[in-house]
């Protein structure tokens, strides 16, 4: 790249070229471990926050599950707005579009099915989600379980907590490498994703009001999220900017059109974070949840709630996958309904049902 990178280039172009160099190096040296590296992006996909980690954690500790889901909601909302603001390319199409390369010098890097995300790349949504979500999870498990563990010494507690944070940092590093490896992001997009994820995670953990909701507040919060997103979308259109400018690039440079997922596009994301916020808010204000919170904890009931929640989350994923993607309006209506129903069931109805069954037996 020495003959390409000159002082005349912009800072962004220099970062892009350095990132492409790094991606090339990673794809060369990590090829024997490619399946593992690519799978990390699958495991760290934003969908898992809604359909796996939230149900699992809500069963373990209701409030921790709610904070984790609020972190996911705020990440999706803020990430969408930031992507529209920063208008960032992704490596897999930038390499094919930039004039900095000739046909002879253009790198031939490998692409994968999960490379083909359709939205802008700045900041990394994967890293924002994983940093924010696991920040809340790590803080929650440390404070609610490890530090309250009476049978071990404070020294051992410190070691366990330090190990937990080490795993957290290691996982974020793995996601960073994975997002670069599959050409989903440039280096600076990952760095900004980490920074913004820490801000969101810290807010979700330290804000007491997000787990104390009335029905009116739930409706107003959901209305604010969708209104703000739609307003920014309409503002961009009025300024002659196309918020969906990345979709043609994704379709052009992906190996197969079907790899461009509809659930990475703005309209779906709006329905997901709006519906989830409404469903969670209504669940948090539900009398059934309050009954559960005022009942004594029971390890058997906790395990059942965790297991049933994960099953429901997986069922919801299968239902989502069955929605007709060729009819956008119907797809969005069904997705919104599912997004409202799942958190309400997980945070309020499921634990109340299992509580009733447990004491009824």
Give a concise summary.
The protein has 361 residues and is mainly alpha-helical. Helices cover 72% and strands 0% of the residues. The model has no long low-confidence stretch (mean pLDDT 92).
Plain-language structure description:
The N and C termini lie far apart (71 Å). The model has no long low-confidence stretch (mean pLDDT 92). The chain has 361 residues and is mainly α. The chain is 72% helix and 0% strand.
Fold topology:
Layout: H1 11-29, H2 34-43, H3 46-60, H4 62-86, H5 91-97, H6 125-146, H7 154-181, H8 187-206, H9 215-238, H10 246-253, H11 266-284, H12 287-293, H13 299-322, H14 328-360
Question: Which oligomeric state applies?
Answer: single chain
N→C terminal distance: 71 Å
Biggest β-sheet strands, sense, barrel: none
Poorly predicted tracts of residues: none
- Average residue pLDDT: 92
What is the gyration radius calculated from CA atoms? Answer: 22 Å
% residues in beta strands: under 5%
Entry keywords:
72% helix; mainly alpha; 361 residues; globular
